[in-house]
Give the backbone structure.
Amino acid sequence: MENPPIIEMKGIRKGFPGIVANDDITITLQKGEVLALLGENGAGKSTLMSILFGLYRPDRGTISIKGKEVQISSPTQANDMGIGMVHQHFKLVHNFTITENIVLGLEPRKGLGMDLESASKRIKQLSEHYGLNVDPDEKIEDVSVGMQQRVEILKMLYRDAEVLIFDEPTAVLTPQEIQDLMKIMKNMIDEGKSIILITHKLKEIKAIADRCTVIRRGKLIGTVDVADTSTEAMAEMMVGREVSFTVDKEDREVDKKVLEIQGLNVINRRGVMGVKDFWLDVYGGEILGLAGVDGNGQTELVEALTGLTRVESGKILINGKDVTHSNIRERIESGLAHIPEDRQKRGLVLDYSVEDNFILENYGDDRFNTYGFMNRGAIRENSEAIILDFDVRAGQGSDTPARSLSGGNQQKAIVGREISHNPDLLIAVQPTRGLDVGSIEYIHKRLIEQRDSGKAVLLVSLELDEILDLSDRIAVISHGELIGLVNADEIDENEAGLMMAGVAKGSKS
Amino acid sequence: MKLKLPHMHRTMTVHLIAVFLGLAAGAVFMISTGNNPFAGYAYLFKGALMNYERIGNTLATATPLIFTGLSVAFAFNTGLFNIGASGQLLAGGLCATAVGLTVVLPKPLLLLLMLLAAIVGGGLWGFIPGFLKALFNVHEVVATIMMNWIAYWVVNYTVPAYFKGEFLETESRKIPDIASLRVPWLTELLDGSYLNLGFFIAIFVSLVIWVILKKTVLGYELKAAGFNRHAAEYAGMKVNRNIVLSMTIAGALAGIGGLSLYAGYAVNIQIGILPNQGFDGIAVSLLGANSPIGVLFTALFFGILHSGKGFMNAMTEIPPEIGETIIAILIYFAATKILIERFLDKMNTRFVNRISVQTGEVIEKGGN
Ligand SMILES: Nc1ncnc2c1ncn2[C@@H]1O[C@H](COP(=O)(O)OP(=O)(O)OP(=O)(O)O)[C@@H](O)[C@H]1O
Ligand SMILES: [Mg+2]
């Protein structure tokens, strides 16, 4: 430790309209370590890292690299200083190949043309070295989200980054991909790189980080050694109160059928059958968890149920009414609400204010307009209620543009909006993606309240823990087919894992 | 409202800077052609605003630009590029002229009917590209450009065939006074200028469009699709219907511009011309930050440049093309407004930094 830290951010302050996102924050990163940043949604983690990466300028405070004070005023500069960042939302050109994406901005020249061949060779080398398994000639649009993330990682490595910043890298990954990422990170540490990792998952911090800096509402709470701090203690530091990790749920009888899926077939974008002969009923008063490995038809099923995709054949009934060919509005009016998988693509109009986003589906309600004119008063009231109820933290309250909400608060806004409709059927896809442990606890409680009041919840999640904790029944989907349907208390993690891999429970093979 | 003000303020600053840079670049041109830019600009503004008649003519010149600017801006707010304001203006103008030349009614009723005809003609010219986009995903830029030429040829055939002028094959008969937006009291008030009722319609329509976009459910819905089509779909909005509706409204706006051009500013419609006002509308919308109020003021500014350049040319050696050049430069600067914004940001953070460093010092001293 006699060497100066590779990164030191000292007394950083950054204000946005109505909020101080970073208030006198100091962090240090030693060479060869993983430093975790932990904090509630909107605590200021992404802001702090954006400052280090040259996207924002701090109002006050200094940044030093290896003991030397520096000014970082653009990402290009950050790159030159050996700092790389993988953002929460990737920045890739979809119809470019992986190689083209990686060299973008520093195209290797050969005479007048580009020397993509040597670049591609180097990428292959790097990929092998760190165990990334990337094919440089594939196009981004053809590869999985996990692979896209690796491309982002390669972008950093290709630019010889010494310090790698990961902003919630695991939020979009499948459990298997998370395992792989952890391994890749270990390889990078072995190569002498240093990592700053933002994550809400305490398990991951335990698994890989050396130290953990905790931020709450823009202020530094402290830095702890991960090895001698329990996850409970870290959670408490971050939220300021004890967090319960278990979900309390009373047994209850189910009510009537709310959703009936009858022999559904759906063709996906690639023109093949994404959902095959799917039968499933969801009852009022239950949470039905849909488990499965990513890309096994969950997206197609949800899009068909919500009306975003056409059904090839089969039937969908909500509250006994056939909605197979109804449009989205009609389904919403039949009692459907949907927490979408991709919050920025589907869930929000980022350029609208928070309050305008809260009426995205029901702006036409009588209370929100008179003769076609918006009732600003009622819209504001609606917004304040959801903000309060779901603790959506926004610098300027209802007026805040959705774009400037932190990732987790965007998610809370969507979840809050959908639950506030009090729908008969809630289709919740990854409802707690990107949320801090305190918020997860709260959202889980609200989902169970829905169930307790006799509503139906279809929970789609890649996180087995979430499915096991919340569900009354679990349906497993594999290759677009329903391959198992069990009561949640009759199954443990291992069995569920096996089923997801395609081994039906009780099958004789 | 509280929050939007600084934002509006900022957009305005950016655009004023663009205007200033445009004028400065124009000055450089004048100097390089051996002229005095102060004299040049003095004559330009004099030419546009020297007396009542010229002011009236400036406003009359601006009027069609207000409509085409609104047309482009409205479409843009809903995520669509309307390159077809020219054709829509022609279509609206042709329909209005046809009514004006054939129908006999008292003036107020006749004008109302002409207005309706302009709305229908322009609206149809917007509806078709909207429909093609909604149904077959034909890009509206392609479709509106094609509609421009269709309007051009339709005018080319129908005017000589049905509305031929007394002397010339290439223009329609003059519309009678009773079918003109010019009214005697206004003409007299402004010493015989071309200013006509179109200008007042334009102001009124600007306000209406502003209200629609800002205050109504319709505006909320149309803009949502413009910002994020996927989210609008998700929320159950009828995105396709909205595309058609939005293009129709945009077309109708440009169509009224045609009424104001051919039955107000001018007295007949000519063949063989794809009116420039349609393309200027794109610039007006861009420089007006796609807001109806911004469009109104930008169109007036363009009106000044257009109507003053003749006088400038007459009084100095400066070629009238300088006016066009300034407009072209303005567009460049408006398009690079991101650069200007970034520059403003930089100045801002420097300023804030300096202040916070100062206060920081004070705090430290206080602490000691
Ligand atoms: N560009 C911006 N403009 C205005 N406010 C912003 C902007 N970026 C962030 N904020 C505000 O600053 C605060 C901190 O945001 P930040 O994104 O750093 O949170 P975070 O710790 O990364 O949270 P999360 O875990 O939800 O991603 C939030 O209240 C957010 O609303
Ligand atoms: Mg964040």
In short: DSSP finds 15 helices and no strands in chain B. Residues 1-5, 352-368 of chain B have pLDDT under 50 and may be disordered.
